[in-house]
Amino acid sequence: MEYVEIFDTTLRDGEQVPGCKLDAVTKLTIAEQLDQLGVDVLEAGFPISSPGDFKAVEDISKLVKNARVCGLTRAVKKDIEVAAEALKTAKRARIHTGIGTSESHMRFKFNATPEQILERAIAAVTYAKSFVEDVEFYAEDAGRTDNEFLSKVCEAVIKAGATVLNIPDTTGYCLPYEYGAKMKYLKENVTGIHKATLSCHCHNDLGLATANSIAGVQHGARQIECTINGIGERAGNTSLEEVVMILRQHPTLNLDTRIQSQQLFGISQLVSESMAMPVQPNKAIVGANAFAHSSGIHQDGVIKKRETYEIINPTDVGVTESSIILTARSGRAALAYRAKNIGYELDKLQLDKVYQQFLVVADQQKEIGDEDLPKIIEASKI
Ligand code: KIV
Ligand code: ZN
């Protein structure tokens, strides 16, 4: 079994989403929880972007006990100096620097030639290396970057001392097989690749961030950059809880993380409440419906044996138990189960009668709660 490092960017790529801005105290609370969750790297912010972000990175650096603390920079000297200053008390600091390498970024963002981009990449890594040992380089828009040029950049920054190579699918454009093939290409064509860790950083514009990250680690990447609840620019980033549980539920991949999965639901709630960003009910792993069963066929199966319709034990991700939701689509098994939970043992005849009454009420309201059941049972006796 090999480990995939989890690089959490909830407080950087996640927090830059409009409306998700956090105050300093909440950032520290979340950082502490992420550290306890077992993330390997915690990207705490973009220190040059504002005095508040500088202070957050500085405070998180003092607080965090286990994870590496990382600060983002552009390939700009001043950014790197400021990040190094903000990170100076971290037990293990990482500077994350980089530049756009795709045709469109080079031409429209930087108005620069590939040679000039290459020079700036080398200069940024060399400069960052003068402050910290651990330097991660991002090739922004690597998803749409020509593989041959990407290899050239990777090779050069490894020579300059980069310890991690981030291959972002910044626009969420890649298909999983393409993203996997890109990692494989880099593994096979970059001289010195054994000296660096390849990292996946995928955005979710086409809903493929998780699939792309998994394809990345299947083809040699050993770090995934992700956020709690998948929050992040536009459609978001790879969701931490999804990649962690995919690797855990599929032992044949031979890959695992150091994440304490029982803490996933709690931290998802914390991030959602702090950022006032509700988690969609059908969100994998942490959504309100992720372990809720509402159709009669599924409920009957789950009551007989949970595994018939659940591939994850809810307690493994910090959810107390699966829930059987009573709606007009529920069957007798679910009704008997929920009635028993609140103290009513119904025999077959009683159950038939209560069920008829239940359907009448259930057709009128969306869901039947424990508080409705005694009334339904009484009414069925009339
Ligand atoms: O999506 C991206 O390319 C990024 C980089 C700044 C790492 O977030
Ligand atoms: Zn990003």
What can you see in these coordinates?
The chain has 382 residues and is of the alpha/beta class. The protein has 2 domains: 2-275, Aldolase class I (TIM Barrel, Alpha-Beta Barrel), CATH 3.20.20.70; 292-379, no CATH class. It is 43% helix and 14% strand. The strands form 3 sheets. Strands 2-3-4-5-6-7-8-9 form an 8-stranded parallel barrel, surrounded by 9 helices. The protein binds 3-methyl-2-oxobutanoic acid and zinc ion (ZN). The site of 3-methyl-2-oxobutanoic acid has 8 residues, from strand 6 and strand 7.
Distance between the termini: 63 Å
The topology string of helices and strands comes to EEHHEHEHEHHEHEHEHEHEHEHEHHH
Largest sheet, spatial ordering of strands: 2-3-4-5-6-7-8-9
What is the name of the CATH architecture of the largest domain? Answer: Alpha-Beta Barrel
Name the average pLDDT. Answer: 97
CATH topology tier name of the largest domain = TIM Barrel
Q: What is the radius of gyration computed over CA atoms, rounded to a whole number of angstroms? A: 25 Å
Q: How would you concisely characterize the structure shown here?
A:
The chain is α/β, with parallel strands linked by helices and 382 residues long.
Comma- or semicolon-separated keywords:
single chain, alpha/beta, TIM Barrel, elongated, binds 3-methyl-2-oxobutanoic acid, binds zinc ion
Question: Which helices and strands, and how do they pair?
Answer:
Layout: E1 2-3, E2 5-8, H1 10-14, H2 24-37, E3 41-45, H3 51-63, E4 68-72, H4 77-86, E5 93-100, H5 103-109, H6 114-129, E6 134-140, H7 147-159, E7 164-169, H8 176-189, E8 197-202, H9 209-218, E9 223-226, H10 240-249, E10 255-256, H11 264-275, E11 292-293, H12 296-304, E12 323-324, H13 332-341, H14 348-362, H15 373-379
Parallel strand pairs: 1-10, 2-3, 2-9, 3-4, 4-5, 5-6, 6-7, 7-8, 8-9, 11-12
Helix pairs in contact: 2-3, 2-11, 3-4, 6-7, 7-8, 8-9, 12-13, 14-15
The structure holds 3-methyl-2-oxobutanoic acid and zinc ion.
